[in-house]
Amino acid sequence: MADPELEAIRKRRMQELMARQGMGQGSQQNPEQQKAQEDAKREAEERRQMMLSQILSAEARERLARIALVKPDKARGVEDVILRAAQMGQIAEKVSEERLISLLEQINTQTTKQTKVTIQRRRSVLDDDD
């Protein structure tokens, strides 16, 4: 009889803990903080896109947008490289599509993963080499 009571107590305690964690995350301050964080992220992304539009030519922006559709993480990395170079003063003029392609090729050679395929053939019990 102690086991069902113990289980009931554990369930209630677990529900209380879950409710407390939910309350801590869902308190009145948190929606305001979440909204502020989302606004800050949105504003930072807008600034980032504005800087990229000033640095990249129209064709390069278009190509980067197409890359972002297929590989968003790769496009983000290329954007980071371009923005860093611009902040360091290494980019004096707008980045053309050809320059973007060469940059992509450089990044590809640096980050190319070496894949190795190993085939293991299993022998059947019925196959005899005798």
Describe the structure.
By secondary structure, the chain is mainly α. The chain has a domain at 55-106: PDCD5, DNA-binding domain (Helicase, Ruva Protein, domain 3), CATH 1.10.8. Helices cover 73% and strands 0% of the residues. The protein is built from five helices and no strands. It has helices at 2-25, 29-55, 58-70, 72-87, 97-111. It is flat, with a radius of gyration of 28 Å.
Could you list some keywords that capture this structure?
single chain, 130 residues, mainly alpha, Helicase, Ruva Protein, domain 3, 5 helices, 73% helix, PDCD5-like_sf
Radius of gyration (CA) equals 28 Å
Secondary-structure element sequence? HHHHH
> CATH superfamily membership of one domain, which one?
PDCD5, DNA-binding domain
Structure class: mainly alpha
Q: Just give the CATH class of one domain.
A: Mainly Alpha
- The CATH topology of one domain comes to Helicase, Ruva Protein, domain 3
Q: What's the total number of strands?
A: 0
The residue ranges in which pLDDT falls below 50 over 5 or more consecutive positions are none
Protein name: DNA-binding protein DDB_G0278111-like
GO molecular function: DNA binding
GO cellular component, one term: cytosol
Family: Belongs to the PDCD5 family.
